[in-house]
Amino acid sequence: MRQATACLVVLFCAVASAQPIDYDRVEEPERSYRTEEKEMIEVFTPSKPIGQVSGIAINANDHIVAFHRSNRVWDEKSFNDDETFNKALGVIPNATLAIINREKKVIDEFGAGLFYMPHGLTIDSNGDYWVTDVGSHQVHKIDAKTQKIVMSLGEKLVPGEDETHFCKPTDVAVAKNGHIFVADGYCNSRVLKFDANGNLIAQINAAFEDNQQPSEFVVPHSLSLIEDMDVICVADRENQRVQCFSTGLSEGDRHVPTGIPITSANDIGRVFAIREREHYLIGATGDSEDVQAQMFSIDMQTGRTETFAKGLGESHALAIASDGVMYVSQLEPSRLLQVRLI
Ligand SMILES: *[C@@H]1O[C@H](CO)[C@@H](O)[C@H](O)[C@H]1NC(C)=O
């Protein structure tokens, strides 16, 4: 079903699968992310101080939503040896979500008294927020209107590896039909798929291309669901690769089971964040022994990979605005960056 593909550094390796992506269904992108374009990187300082931004997203109004840790930092006192959170620290009493307009003004804040150690953030097609809390080992849905938690997966503060527990989940992606993909995360290194009611329906296992390649994820840190291509991509951070799989979401004749390997990019550095816009997968990597921190783009229709923002390290999360401007959060130093290709 799949053929061995030789992969060079920063080369996108297309792998033949039972049912390849139907490119006729996807629209031509309006812009491209290329190295021949120069990038402009600016520090983006919100009008009001916020904590370390672990997750970032763009809402329907093209505002930046930052999921941040307020005064909390992740250090050696945060977790016990058994991965449980240090309960003496309690919840973060202050707001952990900030909505910031493109002019840097903080226009709304919420999420106080709910989270222990914020991590991932995504916004679903209805505009509702989904977050992961590595402290409580949970995934939560927050209603955008009421700003209240309306659904939680995982048992609060109890790490585990079964169908109803996570251990430091890193990211979440949600399909239009309500199916939920969870990257679970720092300890379990697995990717799970749940139905809209939170029942486990599938697990996505790492693609095993040849004996040179690790056969399991090591810290899946970010997910990007490209629903119109029927693809979910996993930033397999410590294996320094991105792997993309069938989502199992399409119905009828087009149905492909969940988790068939579609494409991958290998040896691209420690990938902290991936997000998609107009069928470009944009990523941010951290420094590793072999590869300098940078950003990359993969044209999901041709597989062409480009790199930019070379040397931009410490990136944790990434979001792309409707005009293609990218927002990157760094933890150390704690700041947001605006990255524009010009
Ligand atoms: C947290 O909220 C309290 C009360 O409103 C405020 O005094 C304090 O400055 C806030 N701390 C942070 C880090 O935002």
From TrEMBL:
Gene Ontology cellular-component terms listed: extracellular region; membrane
Chain positions recorded as Zn(2+) binding sites: 119, 221, 316
Keyword field: Calcium, Disulfide bond, Glycoprotein, Lyase, Metal-binding, Repeat, Secreted, Signal, Zinc
Signal peptide extent: 1-18
UniProt EC number: 4.3.2.5
GO biological process: peptide metabolic process
Chaperone in keyword set: no
Superkingdom of the source species: Eukaryota
Swiss-Prot/TrEMBL NHL repeat ranges: 104-145, 153-197
List of residues binding Ca(2+): 121
Chain residues that bind a protein: 69, 186, 237
PANTHER family the UniProt entry points to: PEPTIDYL-ALPHA-HYDROXYGLYCINE ALPHA-AMIDATING LYASE 1, PEPTIDYL-GLYCINE ALPHA-AMIDATING MONOOXYGENASE
Protein's name according to its UniProt entry: peptidylamidoglycolate lyase
Native species: Caenorhabditis japonica
